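User: Here's a protein and a ligand (thymidine-5'-diphosphate). What would the complex look like?
Assistant: Let me lay out the input and then the predicted complex.
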Amino acid sequence: MEVRTIRFDEHGDKRGTLVSLEQLKDVPFEIKRVYYMYHTVPEARRGCHAHKNLRQVLVCVSGSCSVLLDDGRERAEVHLDSPNKGLVVESCVWREMFGFSESAVLMVLASELYDESDYIRDYKDFLGYVGGQG
Ligand code: TYD
């Protein structure tokens, strides 16, 4: 499946580096919610769901982790290891995050507020949902 990553502009000088993310410019949607996960144990597998409508950009702002994406037909794996790299995860894509390094902080920019009814948490339900759409 096609994987879309975004390389964010970096403002670097002798003090260090700054990245700024603006909605509809650096990120392809209006940002309604930001959340981040940290202190993730190395054996953890997070996510393991899809969303009906939500769009997201994942940024590993510290450390690294891997993301499995599955659109119901194909899978892809992406390693996030830079604070200037964003992974676009569109709706109707199953995602699993794993392989978190010790210092990993995974930030998620989301197009919608938290809504449990937007989740598809069962993989078979997901295949039925995307199959029914095609
Ligand atoms: P969970 O869906 O298990 O996270 P992940 O998809 O990364 O495995 O969410 C963990 C908890 O956090 C769960 O109780 C729901 C809550 N939560 C919120 O309250 N708001 C949010 O925006 C998110 C993503 C989760």
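Summary: The longest strand covers residues 56-62.
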